[in-house]
UniProtKB/TrEMBL annotation:
Domain Plastocyanin-like per the UniProt entry, residue ranges: 33-146, 161-301, 382-522
Segments passing through the bilayer: none
Keywords, alphabetical: Glycoprotein, Signal
UniProt xrefs under CDD domains: CuRO_2_AAO_like_1 (cd13872)
Signal peptide: 1-23
Family per similarity comment: Belongs to the multicopper oxidase family.
Name of the protein this chain belongs to: L-ascorbate oxidase
GO function term, MF aspect, one: copper ion binding
Amino acid sequence: MGRGKMLMLLICLVVGAMSGVKGEDPYVFYEWNVTYGTASPLGVPQQVILINGQFPGPQINCSSNNNIVVNVFNKLDEPLLFTWSGVQHRKNSWMDGTPGAQCPILPGTNFTYRFQIKDQIGTFFYYPTTSMHRAVGGYGMIRVFSRLLIPVPYPDPEDEFNVLIGDWYTKTHATLLKLLDSGRSIGRPAGVLINGKTAKGDGSDEPLYTMKPGKTYKYRICNAGTKNSLNFRIQGHVMKLVEMEGSHVVQNTYNSLDVHVGQCFTVLVTADQEPKDYYLVASTRFTKVVLTGKGIIRYENGKGPVSPAIPEAPAGGIAWSLNQFRSFRWNLTASAARPNPQGSYKYGQIPITRTIKLVGSNSKVQGKNRYALNGVSHVDPDTPMKLAEYYGIADKVFKYNTISDEPPSNLGSITVTPNVLNITFRTFIEIIIENHEKSMQSYNLDGYSFFAVANEPGRWAPEKRKNYNLLDAVSRHTVQVFPNSWAAIMLTFDNCGMWNLRSELAENRYLGQQLYISILSPERSLRDEYNLQNTTLLCGLVKDLPMPPSYSS
């Protein structure tokens, strides 16, 4: 067993014993102090968001089915929320950390997140959903290991390394926010970071990680940036892809991977080259000006400096990236978080009960820039929509289905309002996302994983279903949509709650390119959804209302 996994399992066993509840899944506890600090990620001192003095923030380590407890002390001067991107929060959107589901943690106060990572494994990350906070830090890795009795389809690595990549602005989040609120764009990032910094390449850089010759290592890679797709590669080494956003995949090898905003990959890398230093490289894709970030990995007892020749990104553009997407396949024989093989779920044989086609758009509203889906640009009400539902006052806060299942003929006309789509519990839905713009898009759905069955250029039409992968599409929670292209996803909406479908691009999301999907329990049953917790923060119209009747068992 690799050193990293052995340590992780020991931690989980210890905290499990500390929980003191016989037969209950183990608990993992964290306490976070969230503050401002000064750092120079690109050589320019600037304000960043720190968690326990760290940028990026501390990693969350756990195993499948562990209960996670994170006590967050907000020492910023603004409200704060964290979301746990990729964590499904079964029956528990109360802990999803989006403004539509949860009241913010006010300055000078604390809130304790409590959630279970039920039947999941893989690589995920957390980040703040409030304001433009993610653009200046507050993000970190979530590593979810398989339980001891569930086999993993590859040998234990010697160790595990986190690689958080992302574009970066040298402006403060307050400056970025003022630009957006004034109707302007935040413009182009200043650079690209790898684990919060970039190597100078002048011989003074310390390595991010050290590898022993001949050993194999697991690299967990997430694009935690705000705008750009990034190509990731390791100088002189190939990467064997083994997992993607909670799913084991067919183990193909790659010289580089396009990692779109919000996406995570897990790869195996063998230290089989000449013992010396090598670059990790992340560079922007599909941009006129290519920005590049670097980090160094070192061989133990290596004698040579890093080669100055940085490996180039693929010469092919969108076509190359699209073909790489099509090469990703679900590993049908591997177990994930449960003992049964992933392929035992025959999603391609389930009848579609509803098709929702979403088209993004961008237009001016009262002279200011807004982004929308099907002509509706979301704005967060003062009362979180999930709380309004639970307290029975939804009609005072928002209207369901302002957005239609088909895009309007005039996408230039935008309505600014809370954007909530109601979907019937346990129905199997097809969602088409078209991108009519000239830039990349990336979308994330909270509370679920979906099957990304197609990604093609042009416009979608029903006859395009013949091109769907109905056998081994990867089950994941993000999907990229290429310029002037479309993507199709399919899933069963079996997780009650208020779940955010959003653009992962910070500017688009903040200016309205998102919606919430409401899945209601038909019987207000605890079998479908947890009750509001006594510690849940209350705000807006529900703050002084009496507690509604609890769900029944």
